[in-house]
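User: I'm writing a tutorial on reading structure tokens. Could you give me a worked example: one chain, its sequence, then its tokens, then a sentence or two explaining what the tokens reveal?
Assistant: Sure. Here is the example chain.
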Amino acid sequence: MKLIIAIIQPDKLEEVKEELYKAEVNLLTVNEVLGHGRQKGVTEVYRGARESGNLLRKVRLEIAVNDGFVEPTVKAIIKGARTGETGDGKIFVLDLKECVRIRTEERGSPAIG
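And here are its predicted structure tokens:
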């Protein structure tokens, strides 16, 4: 079992969701977050002075999957989120020690679905 965390551009969320559904990945959690990577925020000129905003709006996806769905999930996120520009985001794949379905108390892979 793995936990996949992806940080993407907010305007790519619908495309990523469509690609995930095509890959038969239907369980996800979405959060609006703030952060920046290499682009180091936004620089704007206001009344002749440069001002840098430190944090940009991003979307964080959290997806728990069984091992056989890791690569299709990663590929679906890349396909939906990629623009080729700096700031497309990152994907993190973490080991998931345990999963428990609250309703039935199932544990492990069956709890993910």
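What the tokens reveal: The two ends are 11 Å apart (CA to CA). The chain has a mean pLDDT of 89.
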